[in-house]
């Protein structure tokens, strides 16, 4: 087990496990955290997993954990690692099973005062329009040609089908499409799992949430991205559903079989990886990119459904919902960074971490019933954290423990007291996502803001939560 004695304090918000800590470490491991948030990180295997990541071939500068970090599969959730394209590896554990799980923020032109009496009806209609729950089918049964187009072209394919506007693409990370995707490298089983799940939310921590802009920290930036105090906005949080999960499963199994021929020795089999430039590595990257495109398309279709619900609840005369931004937080991308004075292309793994490029909106959802944030990426993130920041509050309690310790009726009463309307399949199931099961979102966001890798713009308050 780790303790604070194992860490070197770089600043009040950044700590380091030196490369000398373990003989197999290739780079140091860094943790963005306050003294307070470190306590949660010490409670599970997060730091052990982070040190394991630092041993992978071709890793550059350091392995990174964000303040929302907690134990995951192989890599910690909240982990960032970048690898040399020629000497480094690609690891599905560094992306996660829910490939391109991400967040989209929609903005309206109305103030909460104008629609206060419509909120419950809006929440109920969104619940009907957006299918949710484990394995829940959507209204769209994709044929082979349609599914292939979505895997290749992401959100654009859905817009071409008539479910969105061309301008939507200008407000999505990578314009809603990862180049180089190959639908033939997505298994038939994965395709079968995704064929009827377009436009569905899923379960777990996925949600559609109606929020109000509660606080503004940067008036100028808020105005630039079109946010004002009292404004009604909607957050969408979901990913690639069963299709992405199956892609991850397929390639983890493959990599575990072929690793010996590449002479890769791991401290944890969950880190299963292959050289990025190997046939298996290239195929996984192309298949992962296709799954990421499915996720962009999924959030695009849910946007269409939410726009429909918005009109049904408020009337046809109300203005349309526009996209502020859409960000991925389980993905690997080829990006350029300075390493030892030279610009190099790297394969950057972000697992439960959000891209935070300079002047790019960053969306940080809180747990159910707590605040969410809109940040803006800072130039300093390119030097410090491979253009990355946190992705949410981060779990402090497992789902099993949450179900045991949190009373469903008390949770419901607490949300009602906060004037938060909740529509879900099961109140008992919501205990997994109770605010008590997560870290303090305000403290997590404060860490990345103080570290200079993202700047606070606005704080959002939930008024209606829709879950599976």
Secondary structure elements and their pairing?
Blueprint: E1 8-11, E2 14-17, E3 29-32, H1 35-41, H2 46-53, E4 63-70, E5 77-84, E6 89-90, E7 102-111, H3 112-115, H4 119-129, H5 144-153, H6 155-160, H7 188-194, E8 207-216, H8 219-225, E9 231-238, H9 241-258, E10 274-275, H10 279-314, E11 322-328, E12 330-339, E13 342-351, E14 354-355, E15 361-364, E16 372-377, H11 380-384, E17 388-389, H12 399-405, H13 408-417, E18 421-423, H14 441-451, E19 454-466
Helix pairs in contact: 4-10, 5-10, 7-9, 9-10
Any descriptors?
7-stranded mixed beta sheet, 14 helices
Q: Please tell me how large the radius of gyration is.
A: 21 Å
**Secondary structure tally: strands:** 19
The first-to-last residue Cα distance is 36 Å
In helices, the fraction of residues equals 25-40%
Q: Assess the beta-strand content as a share of residues.
A: 25-35%
* Spans where pLDDT lies below 50 across 5 or more residues: none
Shape: globular
Number of helical segments with 4 or more residues? 14
Descriptive notes:
- This protein has 468 residues and is of the alpha+beta class.
- It has 14 helices and 19 strands.
- It has helices at 35-41, 46-53, 112-115, 119-129, 144-153, 155-160, 188-194, 219-225, 241-258, 279-314, 380-384, 399-405, 408-417, 441-451, and strands spanning 8-11, 14-17, 29-32, 63-70, 77-84, 89-90, 102-111, 207-216, 231-238, 274-275, 322-328, 330-339, 342-351, 354-355, 361-364, 372-377, 388-389, 421-423, 454-466.
- The strands form four sheets. Strands 7, 8, 9, 11, 15, 16, 18 and 19 form an eight-stranded mixed β-sheet that branches.
- Helix 4 packs across helix 10 (279-314) and helix 7 (188-194) packs antiparallel against helix 9.
- It is globular and about 65 Å long.
- The mean pLDDT is 95.
